From TrEMBL:
Keywords: Transferase. GO terms for cellular component: cytoplasm. This is Glutathione S-transferase C-terminal domain-containing protein. GO terms for molecular function: transferase activity. It comes from Anabarilius grahami.
Length: 142
């Protein structure tokens, strides 16, 4: 994990961070999105960890995969479009378009990876019918 300044040419991925009694943790949906970014080795996203506190990155160093461009942002500093969406959310830099919700964001990460690295059949196999949805358990052979 490296804390970096956001780049305007990269898409932004906003993930929630929660804190209970001062202990900072990642909710399940944020952990799943980070795992998928790590698995797909997709570097086209800048990850913004959304929190109500300041300086949370050091306490999350073991929970965020290395190699990702990560920064923290306070909830009141979110772009207006993202503020109206449920996290996780992916924001395109120029299109003023926000994808929100876990399944939508995961599918978008997979599709982005497949566009950047067409040879990654293992990643493409995570998509289901006509590559428009996540693969359902019934579509997987044991």
């Amino acid at each position: 994990m490296k804390q970096t300044e956001p780049q305007t040419d990269r898409e932004s991925l906003y993930l929630e961070v929660s804190s209970v009694n001062g202990a900072v943790s990642l909710p399940l949906h944020s952990s799943i999105a980070l795992f998928l970014l790590s698995y797909t080795e997709c570097s086209s996203f800048h990850v913004h960890l959304v929190t109500d506190q300041a300086d949370i990155l050091p306490s999350l160093s073991g929970l965020v995969p290395g190699g990702l461009a990560v920064s923290e942002v306070r909830r009141d500093e979110l772009p207006g479009l993202v503020r109206m969406c449920r996290l996780p959310a992916a924001l395109e830099p120029e299109a003023c378009f926000c994808r929100a919700g876990l399944a939508v964001v995961l599918r978008y990460i997979i599709q982005s990876t497949c566009q950047l690295m067409p040879g990654r059949r293992d990643v493409a196999s995570l998509l289901g019918f006509k590559n428009t949805c996540l693969k359902a358990c019934a579509e997987v052979r044991l």
